[in-house]
Write a structure and sequence with these properties.
Helix content: 10-25%
Order of helices and strands: EEEHEEHEEEE
Number of strands: 9
Oligomer: single chain
Number of domains: 1
Strand content: 35-45%
Number of helices: 2
Largest sheet: 6 strands, mixed
Structural class: mainly beta
Length: 126
């Protein structure tokens, strides 16, 4: 399942996560951890329920190999942010919308969804 930042992600109980806090963490390393390696993943999309200490939060944590990390770093140092990040995530399903912009994430059963791939797109305007 590919997830774009503009997709609406719903829980299994049909609650939108669009207004939740979303974070992305990139690590310059060959692999995220042994669990990720066993699942063929480069990281995890994690869900944290709202509590008295934290707002409802979704965090994508991803290991980037040197070539990808350096490409991202060069662009960031040149003050160019990615115009789009595309995550391929296991354990997510398409919702009922015909355009595929709705995604269902069963956070009860899979609060740590494996991320298989991340792609950065940079658009330059002159």
């Amino acid at each position: 399942m590919d997830v774009k930042l503009n997709d609406d992600v719903l829980t299994h109980s049909n609650e939108s996560l669009k207004k939740s806090k979303w974070e992305v963490c990139f690590y310059h390393t060959e692999s995220y951890n042994e669990n990720a390696v066993q699942q063929g993943a480069i990281g995890f999309l994690k869900y944290y329920q709202e509590s008295e200490y934290r707002e409802e939060t979704c965090i994508a944590s991803v290991a980037l190999k040197t070539e990808v990390f350096n490409q991202l770093l060069v662009n960031l140092q040149s003050k160019r942010l990615p115009s789009q990040m595309l995550f391929t995530v296991k354990e997510l399903e398409y919702g009922a919308l015909p355009d595929g912009d709705q995604i269902i994430w069963n956070v009860q059963d899979m609060s740590n969804a494996p991320i298989l791939e991340v792609e950065f797109q940079f658009h330059f305007y002159f």
